[in-house]
């Protein structure tokens, strides 16, 4: 009980810190959203929990950009596909952007607003279904456009607007695996491969060259896009700025974003789309896990009922170190532990953290910012079960939306 109280106290302090940062830049007051009062010891473990109130804050910020500029913001499903939240997301956003037929279908069926799609190449056998579920299709090459052009033109029941992804060969991403402009990139048509004679029927250009970046990067990128592709943008109806805009981050410069959008709208008369994934769900969810055991092999190591490899793969892939409520950097508090998953992968390590009290088997930990690029990427490596998924709303409190079991593991195998 005492432990729980302490954890809840820490929890409140952390949320205060989170809001405090935002308060400074956006004049949100703490009273606008109550401090987090979720009793996470009531959750199954492990469990992702998304707080609708935090989601709403992000949506309000994104919506203000739409209102100020008239642009359209789409949710990139690749980053966040928690469809139980789609009714709420759909009240603010114009629709979704998909990376595959399945994502497109999910957006079509569960949100029912605009459905855009982009993939490096489309599968012939899936294309009729893509035409049924999508209203905007972006192609990655002129060869792909040529291959599917007739199918697009033959569709009579609805209007499908097509575009081509350009590669401006300018990005400020330092991790090659996340850099669409890296040498020999397969993503987007470079200026030297651009075919002005094949633009007939195409209504949009799309670029995606950013990752977790502020609007100063966008502004510099747009200068290059304008210089290289301005002549072609003139002939288009829409321009899609892709994702990677960290719009809901406390230090994000919204004024520069707004200026960048209106600059292109005014100069070319095009509709502007943004398709962030991460920014929609940034800082809205937690992964709650339990300590299973403590071992000591030169340092204290806590083994958890969650796994970096299975439940937060970006911790290994990105890589990054998630924050934990009430925990600090190694040595910051008296008790330092390495936190590891319960798979057999030697590198299934989340990181080193320190705590004010010694950890014990049964203790719960809450990892922060676990809504995006987690549920969409998790897996059952080692036969590890998937975390439950819960939603917290002011009205209904905790709602456990989904729990997984052996059947979910088994049905992916044969
Ligand atoms: C990944 C991706 C997005 C979303 O990126 P975020 O970093 O989550 O904002 C949008 N568009 C395309 C084409 C992408 O590949």
TrEMBL record:
One annotated GO biological process: spermidine biosynthetic process
Pfam families to which the protein is assigned, alphabetical: Orn_DAP_Arg_deC
Key words of the record: Decarboxylase, Lyase, Pyridoxal phosphate, Spermidine biosynthesis
EC number(s) recorded for this UniProt protein: 4.1.1.96
Cofactors named for this entry: pyridoxal 5'-phosphate
Binding site for substrate: 278, 314
EC category: lyase
One of the record's GO molecular function terms: diaminopimelate decarboxylase activity
Occurrences of domain Orn/DAP/Arg decarboxylase 2 C-terminal (ranges): 72-370
NCBIfam families given in the database record: nspC
PANTHER family cross-referenced by the UniProt entry: CARBOXYNORSPERMIDINE_CARBOXYSPERMIDINE DECARBOXYLASE, DIAMINOPIMELATE DECARBOXYLASE
Name by which UniProt lists this protein: Carboxynorspermidine decarboxylase
Organism: Desulfosporosinus fructosivorans
UniProt gene name: nspC
